[in-house]
Amino acid sequence: MRMQAAELFEQKIKPSELARRLRVSRKSAYQWHQLWRDGGAQALASRGASGSRCRLSLRCLEKLAAYLEQGPAAHGWVEDQVWTAARVATLIGRKFHVSYSVSGATRLMHRFGFSPQVPARRVAERDETAVTAWKEATWAEVKEPGRPAEATSASRTKRASPVGRPTDAPGAGAAAPRS
Q1: Are 73 and 81 in contact (CB under 8 A)?
Q2: What is the pLDDT of residues 135-147, one digit of tens each?
């Protein structure tokens, strides 16, 4: 788009008109015009993607993709087959000696077509039969009974009190109070 702007500036198009044609803000158009006046079309050329550069080389990225394909169990996480962003950050640190944040690991995972998963947090010594027995025996006694269905209402508001309402107010006497 900036190169289009350079072409339009060469045709003597004013920044306000350029902003309308290219659907950009007037501020951007005036900034581009200043850059174009100072350095020509080269000054408007793209400088590449913004943000920090990937700290892994292309070869390391290829290796990381292969490690991810192998699955978490191949790298020591045997409790479930889930790649979390924290695990990927740890894997990068172990294999490549590069520190990555969890959010940075998430971006790398998306780059390779993976989405970070959240593993179920369960104690390794969990006894499922004891948990089931407790739910059936104890939970039924502890749990409070709910309100009957007819006692509930979809509305959380209370009906207005007719006491103190002026008799000449709009809608006064339009509906009889419910009992």
Answers
A1: yes
A2: 887 777 777 666 6
